[in-house]
Every structure is written in C-alpha cells, then in structure tokens.
Amino acid sequence: MEWEDEAFVLSARVHGETGAIVELLTQDRGKFAAHVSGAASRRMKPFLQAGAKVIARYRARVSDQLGAASLEPMGEGPSSLFDEPLALSGLSAAAAVAAGALPEREAHPGAFHALEALIAALAVPAIWPAVYVRFEAGLLQDLGFGLDLSRCAATGALDDLVYVSPRTGRAVSREAGAPYHDKLLPLPPFMLSAQGGLVDGDVGAGLDITGHFLEQFVFHPLNKPLPPARVWLLDRLGEAGRL
Question: CA triplet 139, 210, 79: central angle to 5 degrees?
Fold first, then answer.
C-alpha cells in the first residue's frame, strides 16, 4: 500500500528512541496513523506539532498494518502562532476533536477543508473563535450529524430563529420556543449567516451547541468524553473574555 497526500498533523507521540507515531488528517484518505522515523530530531520537531501541514508519503507492506511515512513541511505551520497562546489553544482543540471524532481510514474531505479554513483564520483574533464554532459544526455535518438551521422545526418559519432543539439539532423560532426556552439552546446569529454579527455570549452559545452534539452523537457512542484540549479552550476563552 503506497500513497502521497496533503495532510495536517493531528498528534504525535514518541515511539522508540527516535521515532513517533503520527496521526494525520489527509485530504483524500481521512485519518491515518503512521510511524515516522527520526521524529526526535531538531529538524523534524517543528512540523510534528498539531496543525502543521505536510506532504505525507506513506508505505505499508500490508494494507491493514501500521505503515511508515515521510513528511515534508508545507508553509510556516503553527510556529507563526507562537506569540498567540489563545490561538494555539484553538488549534490544539481542533486537532484533538478531529482526532477523537473521525474514524480511521475513511475519507472526510469536508473535515480537512474545515480545519484548513480554521487554521487560516487563526491569524485574525477578532474572528477565529467564531470560525472555530463553524469548524465543529462542519465536522458534525461531515460525520452525518449536521445541524438543521434552515427553518423552525415546529412551524416551518424561516425568520427569527433563536433556539436549537438539544434533541434534534433543528432550529426553533422565538415564538414557537417561548414556552420551552429554558430547555432549548440559544442560537447565535452568526451560525445562521456569515453576515451575522458577534455580540458578547455568541461564541459561548455556539460552543455550547456544537459541544452538546459532539458529546451526544460522536463521543458518547464511542465511550469517550470531549477531549481535554477542547475543555481547556473554553476555560481560556472565558479567561480572555472571548466567550
């Protein structure tokens, strides 16, 4: 088995004296793990960080065994964010969520491009937390658990959608949801439209929605909690007043 593909590094853990097992999100083949030799070297370490973009060349003698990969860096990678610890927390959370949620060796190009868009946005502090919410919503969509925010689940109304049902992931209008507002999830406007502005509380509300459905539909069936890096991101956004 042999292939070459663009990929983002999701994680890397030491294996042996000089190697590492690297988890990759590839553009065309989904999530793949591979052994990378020489990973402990000073040259290799910068592009084994979560979020680094690489060209991966993979080879395995048998298709279902762990193969070996060589990695060639593409671009500056996460080092450009070293002076932005909050953005690095966002990148770590995104990589951990993708690593935990995506199945092995199953193509998910939507997840690859969602992560690519988030990484591009991390350089813009004013917008990346909202883009992070969209990343998680896109990941849910790509896994078959997309939110339906197009119309009110109860009335079919297209306007004044301000809630999400925690059971179905469908939008609910203000009028229809009023009697049940304490049981519904607030829906921030930016999740409905790219033109929706951000006010205090919107990012937190968006993360509550995506976190709820990631837990309910993805991590709970796998007997896993949300990744710690995702929990820490909420803490750090809260401390920075960005929720």
Answer: 60
